[in-house]
Request: fold
Amino acid sequence: MRKKYDGMTSIIELPLKTEKWQGDVINKKMDHAVQIYNDMLHYKLGQYKELTEREDWKENECEIIHFYDLTNPIETVTKKYDSFYNKKLDIILNQEHGEDFNQEEVEKQLLAEKEEVISKLLQERAAFEEEILSEIDQNKIERKARQNIKKSGVPITDDGMNTEIKKVLEEEKKKITEEKVKICKKEAFQKKNDMLKEARFTEFGFNGDVAKFSAHYTTTVSSNMACLTIAAPLWVAFSKFLFGNGKKVHYKKRGSINTIKTNGKSGIRLITENNRYYLILSNSPYKKEKNGEIYRFKARYNSSHPVKIEVLVGEKEYNKEMLQADISSICIKRVKIRDQYKYFVQFSVRRFPYKKKDENGDLIHPISDGTVGLCIWRNRLCAVSKDQVKTYDLSPGYSEYSDQLSEIGQKMDQLLRLNNPDNYNENGTVKSGIMVDGEKQRLIWVKSRQYKELSKKYREVSRKYVETRSIWQNKIVYKLLSMGNEFFIYDTSYLTKKVDLESKTKKEQQTKADRRRSIMQAAPSEFINKLNRKLQSDLLAPVNKVIIPEQLYWYNHAKGFCNKDDFGDDYMMLNMFESIPHTLYRAFMMLYYDSDRKEYRNIPEDEWNSFLERAKMENVVKTNKNKI
Reply:
């Protein structure tokens, strides 16, 4: 059996020199990949529907849901059932009803049904808790509580003993519950995995099934290309749906697949001729069986006339050195630039990234030793090491691009409203759909030629900004590596979740909107991934995400306690007259946080003064309370 490669893999991207007909061949392969993907997805969704209708699957799902209802906090479970019955009521109300329909009666019926379910669940939770308590030795709890009080040096009293017993009892209940959770989850999910494996919902099963759907397109999409371009991403989508937070697996729109990939041995190969590099796109003959005989039809470009495309390697030593390594996969991708497709090739090579050097043989981007504290807030990144203080804007030049995008977006919205007046409500909002023969259907949008031209312009401006941001963030990564090689950052989520804004105040709504906008502009998660990839290529540990307890978020080390009043929207007060960005202060505090003890260490006075001096050199210390 061939041993799987587990070493370092690097990626190098180079442009392709394509003629019009060569681009058409690549586009055709990608269009056929979309058709194969959708055909296979339709088949797998049908298989999944049949699987979910089986009695053993339904029993297993009910077992898993019931198990979570018993162990999750009662507030979470109640909220889940409230949401479920509210949606059920909305579905009933949106249907067409006769004159005898009584809404109040329906609401009462659903409310009674919900209360009955929750009441039964509370009884089962009580029985489950009694079962856990029956496994606990009360004498052992009392002995442990007494030992804890003795260790603390506090005199033993009845009130203190009762409080400590409750604390120890809760810890023991939590421990036993976690053990039961682990066992039950393992058994339930093992049954689910067995059923999925039986229905070929595995990576190996997907690779086998894709051959049936790619057989008709064998002249353009080889079996190897179908596995890596279609089966692999489809399995990733189903994995998120089955085991992650995915809610639905979507079909691909025409033109949505912009990459084709092979292992570099068939379908797409790299050759050299006269010190030049070329890609060979091979096309297999089409086989068809009729009356017991197999007929072969040659592809348009058969093995004797493969599609040959030049790779523009250039004179850089970096590119030539990387291409000398073993190639594990070849991927062709297309990018629309100025309303025209440009084609690139990505080689996955089995080696460490090439270290760029200057004329003297020194590294252009050296990596220093040391610890660096990071903090990101809105569009700002702050980095602090023992001898450096840096602040960076993660979205440079966004205001310029934002003005262009806003102007184009307003024109596009006006054209949509002029051409589709029936798709909007009286208050100007978009309708959720239209009712046709009692069924809700999607809206049909009429898009004029002018709208389509503006849409192309909008995509081009967005592409330029994303490209500019990516280049700038790569430069920031190299600057951070010159500060140190061990990074700590405040752990937070950069997901833009939809929340119920109606219950929020105007200030809270604005704060949420600013947060979502800044994440869209700065892409902080993408930046952290860039830094992690660079650290990984040098065999260094990834960025350490530090979880700070909520009570320490407003910690002021000068006072020794948390004081929210010292922090403003974008600053932290040092004294009556000076302030610094709170992002910079938290980046500095990352250097002194003890994750094991979950507290900040004492900060030497000389290190604090040195930090303030470097912050003043960066011109980030303000002498008033105004927002920075």
